[in-house]
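Teaching note: in complex prediction, the entire set of molecules is handled at once rather than each chain in isolation. The prompt given to students was simply: 'Predict the structure of this complex.' The entities are:
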Amino acid sequence: MNCLRPADIYLYLENELDPAAAREADEHLALCPGCRSAFEERRALMDAVAGIPNFEVPPDLAGRILARIPPDRSSLFGGLVAFIIGLSSFFLGGLAYVILTGQSLTGFLIDANRSAWGFMRDASLAFIKFAKLTALGLDLLIKFIGEMGKGLALFSALIRPEVYAAVFLLFLVLTALLVAGFRKMSLHGEKP
Amino acid sequence: MKTPSQIKPFLSDSVSRDEDNALVRRALKGDRKAFEMIILKYQQPLLNYLGRLTGEREQALDFTQEVFLKVHASLPSFQPRFKFSAWLFKIASNFMIDFWRKKKIAAVSLDRSRDDGENPCSLQVPDTGPPVAKKYELAQIKKRIEGALERVPEELRELFVLRHINEFSYEEIAEIKGLPVGTVKNRVFQTKEMLRGLLEESS
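The expected output is the structure of the full assembly:
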């Protein structure tokens, strides 16, 4: 092999030579003192380049940049539009109500206030009732499960072991048939 | 310390790429925390790049802020099929080109023969005299390299910094700069030999 060109030495140092060329370079470097010297010199240069220190980043740099970015206008604008539409709807609705019923504006505002409080009161009462019903339902369910357990225990004490085994076997067969059926359905895309 | 043979692109793995794309998506929805994470991830490599190109830390810090603001403004145009770090450095590179143009720094006239080399090894520099590495200790060389780098023309310095400070691959640099890979390799090689020559001159 001919002596290495400086460009090849750099590519070799950066693992940019293809494997065959790198192998040849390896072999040549082992035999040629001139190329080895050129290689060592460029390696030292590149080692020094790799060791050039970083510039120091101030800890508040990200904060400084973010402070220069205005808040997202789209979300701000969207919120503002929703607020304006809501407020306008309320006033337009109120105006229509006042015109249609002939009621005074003050009377309308008093009614609106009463309606809001009435809604709050009714909603609170409904929520309390719902919570009570849920608690009662849960209580009933727990009792039912307890009684079912007792019944099952009594049933298993009364029947003979052969019957018990036959029922268990029947249950297993039915489960296996169900699983096989579902599997077939899912494989062929059949509808039930 | 890293040796050249240990050089790896600092953000080339697919995990980092997915992470970047996720952060960009969140930032586009107005998530400032996501953009802050992008800044924290890239502020050091970007400052190093701009610092080595301007030669002044304070100016590089100002430029880093400007580039991140440009990145934020351009986020809607980012396409996830590109690598985010390469896209970011493309913006930074364009920023520096504008800066140099405004300063009316004479553009470096690069020899045509260097540019169209499919073979990046066309330029040969003879090894004359005692090796530079033997004349100085490593720490001294680092200082000298920093000084010598400032004397290298901007166009060449930028490619060298992208390769050896920011550790981009030649292919990524070609994408950032819109140049053929062979041209990038040739110019980076030329810069290294130029640095070597400058170090010898100053010895």
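Point out the following to students. Chain A is about 80% helix and 0% strand. The mean pLDDT of chain A is 85.
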